[in-house]
Design goal:
The structure is a single chain. The protein is α/β, with parallel strands linked by helices. Helix content is 34%, strand content 22%. The chain is built from 28 helices and 39 strands. The strands form six sheets. The protein has an eight-stranded mixed sheet with strand order 1-2-3-4-5-6-8-7, with helices on both faces. Strands 11-12-10-9-13-14-15 form a seven-stranded mixed sheet, with helices on both faces. A hairpin with a 2-residue loop joins strand 11 and strand 12. Helix 8 runs parallel beside helix 9 and helix 27 packs across helix 28. It starts with 15 loop residues before the first strand and ends in a 16-residue tail after the last strand. The N terminus is likely disordered.
């Protein structure tokens, strides 16, 4: 788009869509010579006051020279960016590189003067803050390290943009002007500010979709049936509290089912916040344009025929997102099931679900409409499966999630006061790095339970734009658990865990009391606890003759026991006149649990429709009093706990419900997840620190990396370069000398000193001591020559084996420490024991970089073979402190230098005192232009 005289080609990677403070979107892109008319039009809509603040003098219009200057950039020393909505400028920012005297300059000058101008109608939307993030990232990319800005003292809004950004800055006042200077290197505070703004903006964008003041259903047919007509009926039946409109070009009447009807969105005289689009895909672009021009804030596109249908549909989907973002709108879908908000202030059912779920505290997100239906059904129904009624706060089924994704909904749930537990069904994770970051913060406040479908399909479902990842699913799962996500494998487990977390407090530990009226069911529960890593107490059998009072006494005693963290009650059906009745037992358990609100109580029942009904009843979610529960005989009236919960002291929605499960293993599995999550919450309260090491040479490492990368785009370092690079971070690799001949081997041994090791470095034998390619403890020249001859006789010529000689390290446990930069997940540190057995069993643990001291400690202890490091079967414990320090240094290396894309230390022999790194591989590549530390952006379409 630029002329040939410009020094750099148009930087397309600077283009980005961003979410603004009010939840709308804007596009940020470089300003080019083609933008002259847009710039003039933009400037004409800026107030005289804003122009005065920008130029420090009355400046009613731009001259031809000004327009040329502000649209011609070299994208290095002179850069201009614009924020656009509907293709028109709403704000601009530019920088000009300057020297120490404030005069125009070129590299290596590393300071630039920056200035903003925001259209008055868009001030207060966070446009300038978003532009600052992006222009700062551009400047860093072009070698600029510091911005300077001159602002009039009365321009408080712009001063606040700079001072609130979180950068290290200086402030001075001279000649009636405030001069601000600030470094562009991200700081902890600037990153915190950036992410807080990101959270508020993305949460607000979802809130606009879930709590609209008005909804238009576009494609509502004249005859019953059809998607649009169904959604319209569902909205009406749910009692939507806002304005509702039906839109269809074929409509002749002014009403449809009592809803105001219009032929187009443009005809609606009032603003429309949300449009549900239910027309065939070829007609959607016209609808989007009409909505954008009418000022609609968001779209729920239930229409199919997009990426799920093939390449042509994928192209149609990308154009849909591009078009919607042009108008500042966000999209749920396409191919979406819809959205639900049960809040009494909203009552939104803009979905294909024929019934409004009961209000409650669980948020649901599903990428699949079918799974969304299953989740709503599981939580709605009573009797069978997981019994009980637990309501929903919000529900989002994203379909192809071309725009709004699980990340956005997590941002919304984070500070949503109506959601206590979040349940998510994900078929793909478009940005695992961001998801783990958001999940870690959210999980510290409320449980986040995730089941991932298509784990073994090898590819994301059609329609999902997903970054390529080289990490196996098990690794991604481990990283999610590290972030506090409760990872389960099935929809059943998702609901099981969600019900417990929504109804009961978190357990303080793994100690479980088991009691009930069935000895066999108690033993099954005891075994299930052991299998899940819990610490069950011996089961207490109350016998089948136990009364409700016996249950109450036993539960009360267990909850009062300091050696118990949770109680599982097992119960079999009431048989005979002397057996406890369901409603009496439910009241006994409820009253006992209410007296000890800090410990969770669960029930394992066998076909107890009445008991489960009684346990789960609550005034805020129960059906009408004349409803009959499944499993209750005709004429029977199941007990309703809400009748006893209607007191002045406790509102019905605050009632503590006891979850009931039809199988011991399901109840215990849910409890085990709650125990692990509670432990994570306690540890997350003190997350540890990334240590500072005084002997790290960060600057020297950067210079060495630049020098090495000058040889090529990506390369694997040789032993000498790798050893030198690692040594700058305090990681010493034992010297290994090449031995192409026996005489060279002997010379190397004399240099290193006996005893030595002789080993091959051929790729097929490297790190495979089990194949016989290593000879250890060679004490003299005779043994060395004999070992050399054995290796060449067994495996081939020296030029094939590439033998080396290395001084012997102290005996210990062989381990492996690796770090890799994954394009989707970011930097990941891995640890395991060396050897084929660990590789075969997949016994490797992972943590996201940067790793804290607490992370390193847990990493060492989280592999199944960890006992070998701590004195298993009488062996000497090894120096795990030295191992943890090594991992922290590797983490610092890859975190400080994103050009280090892979590090492998193998083997690392950990002795009782100290450790030895015997082999190291380091790979370098140019760092990505943008990463998770860069400016906030929406995923590219």
């Amino acid at each position: 788009m630029q002329t040939s005289s410009d020094r750099h080609e148009y930087p397309a990677h600077w283009e980005a869509d961003v979410v603004l403070r009010d939840g709308g979107t804007a596009r940020i892109r470089p300003i080019t010579v083609d933008d002259a008319e847009r710039l003039v039009s933009f400037y004409e809509q800026v107030s005289d006051e804003s122009k005065y603040y920008r130029f420090f003098a009355p400046y009613p219009r731009l001259s031809a020279k000004d327009v040329h200057r502000f649209t011609h950039h070299d994208f290095v020393d002179r850069v201009g960016l614009a924020a656009t909505v509907g293709g028109e400028f709403i704000a601009t920012v530019r920088y000009d590189r300057i020297d120490a005297d404030g005069m125009p300059a070129s590299s290596p000058a590393d300071e630039a003067e920056v200035a903003f101008l925001v259209q008055d109608a868009h001030q207060g939307r966070g446009v300038a803050s978003a532009l600052l993030e992006h222009v700062a990232a551009v400047a860093r990319e072009r070698g600029i390290r510091r911005f300077a800005a001159e602002v009039l003292p009365a321009n408080n809004k712009m001063i606040k943009v700079f001072t609130d950004a979180g950068y290290t800055q200086k402030r001075s006042f001279e000649d009636g002007v405030v001069r601000l200077e600030f470094d562009l290197e991200p700081t902890d505070r600037s990153l915190a500010v950036q992410r807080a703004r990101e959270q508020r903006a993305e949460a607000r964008s979802v809130q606009r979709l879930l709590a609209p003041g008005s909804v238009a259903v576009i494609g509502a047919g004249r005859t019953p049936g059809g998607v649009g007509r169904s959604v319209l009926g569902n909205l009406k039946d749910a009692g939507f509290t806002g304005r509702l409109y039906a839109v269809n070009k074929a409509l002749q009447d002014k009403e449809l089912d009592g809803v105001p009807a219009y032929r187009t969105v443009r005809d609606i005289p009032e603003p429309v916040d949300l449009a549900v689009v239910a027309v065939p895909a070829p007609f959607v672009p016209e609808i989007v344009a009409e909505c954008g021009e009418h000022g609609v804030q968001g779209l729920v596109v239930v229409s199919a025929g997009y990426a799920e249908s093939g390449p042509a549909g994928l192209a149609r989907q990308r154009e849909l997102v591009r078009q919607a973002r042009t108008y500042g709108m966000r999209i749920i879908g396409p191919n979406a099931f819809g959205v639900i908000n049960t809040s009494p202030d909203v009552r939104l059912n803009a979905s294909l679900a024929p019934e409004m779920p009961r209000p409650g505290r669980i948020g649901l997100f599903a990428q699949s409409g079918a799974i969304g239906i299953a989740l709503l059904s599981r939580l709605h129904r009573r009797g069978g499966g997981v019994t009980g009624v637990t309501g929903v706060s919000t529900f989002v089924s994203s379909g192809n999630r071309a725009d709004v994704s699980g990340n956005d909904v997590v941002q919304y749930w984070y500070d949503d006061p109506n959601t206590d537990v979040a349940l998510m069904y994900l078929e793909s994770i478009g940005n695992p790095r961001k998801f783990t970051r958001l999940a870690r913060r959210t999980a510290a406040a409320k449980p986040l339970v995730v089941v991932q479908g298509a784990r073994h399909g090898g590819a994301a479902p059609q329609g999902h734009a997903v970054r390529a990842t080289r990490l196996p699913h098990a690794t991604v799962s481990a990283l999610l658990r590290q972030a506090g996500v409760i990872r389960v494998d099935t929809i059943t487990e998702l609901v099981d865990a969600g019900l417990l977390l929504a109804r009961q407090p978190l357990p303080a530990g793994p100690r479980v009391a088991i009691l009930g009226n069935s000895e066999s069911l108690g033993l099954l529960t005891y075994d299930a606890c052991l299998a899940q890593g819990l610490r069950p107490l011996p089961p207490l059998d109350l016998t089948t003759a136990a009364s409700a009072e016996d249950f109450h006494t036993a539960v009360s005693r267990a909850l009062a026991d300091g050696a118990c963290d949770a109680v599982v009650v097992t119960a079999i059906p009431a048989l005979g006149e002397t057996s406890v009745a369901d409603e009496a037992l439910a009241e006994a358990l409820r009253s006992a649990a209410a007296a000890a609100p800090a410990k969770p109580v669960l029930v394992v029942h066998v076909e107890l429709g009445g008991l489960a009904e009684a346990l789960s009843a609550a005034a805020s979610t129960a059906p009408q009093a004349d409803a009959t529960a499944p499993g209750v005989a005709s004429g029977a009236r199941p007990f309703r706990l809400e009748q006893r919960l209607r007191t002045e002291e406790a509102a019905p929605q605050e009632a503590r419900l006891i979850p009931a499960y039809p199988a011991a293993e399901r109840a215990v599995r849910a409890l085990a997840e709650a125990v692990k999550y509670a432990q994570w919450r306690r540890e997350a309260a003190e997350p540890g620190k990334v240590p500072e090491f005084e002997d790290i040479d960060e600057k020297g490492t950067a210079e060495q990396i630049d020098m090495l990368l000058a040889r090529g785009q990506g390369l694997t370092l040789g032993p000498q370069d790798a050893g030198e690079l690692l040594a700058r971070y305090g990681i010493d690799v034992r010297r290994a000398l090449p031995a192409p001949t026996p005489d060279d081997a002997v010379a190397a041994a004399h240099t290193l000193g006996y005893p030595v090791a002789l080993k091959t470095t051929a790729p097929h034998l490297r790190h495979r001591a089990d194949l016989g390619g290593v000879r250890l403890d060679l004490a003299d020249e005779e043994q060395l020559r004999r070992a050399y001859a054995e290796l060449t006789d067994l495996f081939g010529k020296p030029e094939e084996l590439r033998p080396v000689v290395q001084a012997m390290a102290p005996r210990g446990v062989d381990t492996v420490v690796r770090a890799v930069i994954d394009p989707a997940a970011g930097a990941v540190l891995s640890f395991g024991l060396a050897g084929a057995a660990s590789e075969l069993l997949g016994d490797t643990a992972h943590r996201l970089v940067p790793v804290t001291d607490r992370d390193a400690s847990s990493l060492v202890r989280s592999i199944r073979t960890a006992p070998l490091l701590f004195g298993w079967r009488g062996s000497a414990p090894v120096d795990t402190a030295a191992l943890e320090e090594l991992m922290l240094r590797v983490s610092r290396l890859v975190d400080d230098h994103p050009e280090v894309v892979a590090v492998s230390l193998e083997p690392v022999v950990v002795a009782p005192h100290g450790l030895s790194v015997l082999g190291a591989t380091v790979r370098l590549a140019r760092a990505p232009v943008r990463d998770d530390l860069g400016p906030r952006t929406l995923p590219a379409y």
